[in-house]
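Supplementary notes for students who missed Thursday's class. We covered one full example, reproduced here. Read the sequence, then the structure, then the short commentary at the end.
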Amino acid sequence: MSKATKTTETALRVNQEKLVNNLRFSFTNATSVLAEMMQNSRRAGATKVEIDFVPETKTLTFRDDGCGIGDYQTLFTLAESGWDAETIENEMPFGLGFLSALFV
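Structure (token representation):
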């Protein structure tokens, strides 16, 4: 095969450190994290959600009575929302809820 017709494979790669560092600029709005957390609670089948904020320590606590996380790897898999096709079509979940919580 000549050099002119030689094929090479190219793949999307991620610099994890820079991605995590830069994502903080995507989640600077406090309401976006609340929306992401509420969406996670709904997916977990929660019927009750409690949100507490302590201004002095800037601590946000989010609790729900949902089923929890079956596989913690899903927290670290970007852009996988876990929602069904209809919800994805109607609500366009990002699959970044855990990361949004870290950055707020």
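Commentary. Residues 16-103 form one domain. The first helix runs from residue 16 to 23. If anything here is unclear, bring it to office hours.
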